[in-house]
Amino acid sequence: MAVSWIWLTLIAFIATSLLHRLVTSNNKKKRLPPGPKGLPILGHLHLLGKNPHQDLHRIAQKHGPIMYMRFGLVPNVIVSSPKAAELFLKTHDLIFASRPPHQAAKYLSWDQRNLSFGAYGPYWRNMRKLCTLELLSNLKISCFQTMRREELGIFIESLKQAARDGIPVDLSAKVSSLTAEMSCRMVFGKKYEDKDIDERGFKTVIQEGMKLAAVPNLGDYFPFLGILDIQGLTRKMKALSKVYDDFFEKVINEHVRDWDHGEQTKDIVDTMMSIMQSGQTREFQFDRRHVKAIMLDMLAGSMDTAASSVEWILSELLRNPTTMKKVQKELEEVVGLERMVEESDIDQLEYLDMVVKETFRLHPVAPLLIPHYAMEDCTVNGYDIPKASRIIINTHAIGRDPDAWSEPEKFIPERFVGSEIDVRGQHFQLLPFGSGRRGCPGMQLGLIQVRLIVSQLVHCFDWRLPNGVLPKELDMAEEFGLVVNRANHLMAIPTFRLQN
């Protein structure tokens, strides 16, 4: 057995070496974007550390906003400025509208049948249209307004008890639980206990998938090495995919059973099952695998990204007490101190909106978005972009571009006073949700969740850091993943401030 693995490794290494020579030979004939000098076979993998978005930003400062790097056998184009992002996401959007092959997505999203990682084509276009019209429309989002109010009420009551006791609250864990419960009720129609999915717990299992989707995987960079599973990632992905599949099968079967008894909750699972049975999808295949893939998309998209956004906004407000006071003053003027914030109040909170934008600029939750994929050879800004290149949009770098932002490292919400810059993908200086065909379809829902949770927390409570930690001493270290969270949980002590 050991001998066969040795031979497989040797064959894979030889094949990889030959392919590397072929790729290098072909690339010499092209006018590729500039980039750092790479190593044989490895390319530029050795230049990436635990926070690749920061490493790529640093390297781009030397080599330019459109930069070529090779990770193993895979050509990558790193995009680090608003003007460059516009070329790839608008001018040549169609050529780069697909997603690359991806081992994590293969195992964790039913062979890339979801919206996030699905290849561009008839199925993806029709599925996005259905999701936009049926699952993420303003009407559908409004249907869950009562649910959001209920969950926020429970959440605030739990924090009021901590305020009475004068004890620190783990805001990272609390907000993560809140968004998980909101997402479960929206997608599944009810909340599930952690043990219902796996002994590790509901949130942990979803977050593990997000981390596996972002970790550098040799199987993606050296396809011939994928079968060897040198890092043990394939084994973890297969085990996690079984956990997902078993749980989502149970959820679907529960919904089918409720239907048989004449009960329907009209959550997102019900809507998708109705679509599957109605014949609306006869133009393309749509079965339980697709339903499960979209369920995971909706769950992860509405849960982890919203929680991370709230976590970073609260972190910046705690670091900047003057800004916190300005947000509270606006809330007092718009809402008053006799009641909690309602969703109808949110559009009037202009300064809060600036705070959200400024946090998205400095802390985009998906700093490298999801890679785009060149479906054909293309020339962009005079550079040859080879077919099958991965296009990595570094929103972390774009948010710190000194040509686009004055004092880019500082947290200054007031920079948006009188500015038309928005987060919806039309202004390439700020792309928290991406842009173009692959822009996030759940953007509107995400914005409602984030602004509602933040406004409620800041309106209902004053906050201070525990153990005498000063605002400027707050640790802001990041933990990289598909969604970037705080490396250390955010702890703070609440004091209830409303008059009821």
Order of helices and strands: HHEEHHHHHEHHHHHHHHEEEEHHEEEE
Derived from helix and strand composition plus strand pairing, the structural class reads: alpha+beta
Total domains:
1
Radius of gyration, rounded? Answer: 23 Å
Q: What is the CATH architecture term? A: Orthogonal Bundle
Please count the beta strands (DSSP E, at least 2 residues each).
11
Report on the biggest sheet. Answer: 4 strands, mixed
Approximate helicity band: 40-55%
Mean pLDDT rating: 91
| Percent range for β-strand residues | 5-15%
CATH superfamily: Cytochrome P450
Please write the CATH class name: Mainly Alpha
**Could you give the order of strands across the largest sheet?**
1-2-7-4
Gap from first CA to last CA = 71 Å
Spans of at least 5 consecutive residues whose pLDDT stays below 50 are 1-10
Categorize the overall geometry.
globular
GO molecular function, one term: iron ion binding
Pfam family, one: p450
Keywords: Heme, Iron, Membrane, Metal-binding, Monooxygenase, Oxidoreductase, Signal
Main location: membrane
Characterize the structure shown.
With 500 residues, this protein is α+β, with helices and mostly antiparallel strands. The protein has one domain (31-496): Orthogonal Bundle (Cytochrome p450), CATH 1.10.630. The chain is built from 17 helices and eleven strands. The strands form four sheets. A four-stranded mixed beta sheet has the order 1-2-7-4. Strands 3-11-8 form a three-stranded antiparallel beta sheet. α13 packs across α15. The longest helix is centred in the middle third of the chain and has 32 residues, at 288-319. The N and C termini lie far apart (71 Å). Belongs to the cytochrome P450 family. It is found in: Membrane. One of its GO terms (molecular function) is heme binding. It comes from Sesamum indicum (Oriental sesame).
